[in-house]
Amino acid sequence: MKVNFIKVQDVLENYKSSVYEKNVERFLSTYSPEIHIYDCWGNWESKGISPWKANVEEWFNGLRADGVSLHVDFNDLVVEENLNLAFVHCAVTFAAHDIESGEKLRQMTNRFTFGLRNENDSWLITHEHSSLPINMETGKGLFNLR
């Protein structure tokens, strides 16, 4: 699936809507085939679109099995770009809602950094880093500090 993301904001809007719709192919269309990801879930890093696709499929299948829709919001968004490269950092809130009742079940906020490259007049994510601050006494991630 080839989608032309003219603006960096198009990439972020696609991220939000494809997560909500659990559309793996459209979600992955925002990523470079050579994506390099530092994720705070399970794996230290992921290199290339194939392992990232496996992670996304597992994530979306888990959401389907739980019967939830996931709403994504980008907060404190900073975008710096030139003609070929863009740098984005923000807080991303993921809120799970029961599909039938619409009730919010849970939410969490992570810190995200995206590096994007303009390829063939379209923006693609080439690097993504998500993180959480940790509690130094317990070693556990701190959710929802924002």
From TrEMBL:
Entry-linked Pfam families: SnoaL_3 (PF13474)
Gene3D superfamilies: 3.10.450.50
Domain SnoaL-like: 8-134
InterPro entries noted in UniProt: NTF2-like_dom_sf, SnoaL-like
SUPFAM superfamilies xref list: NTF2-like
Origin: domain of life: Bacteria
Full protein name: Nuclear transport factor 2 family protein
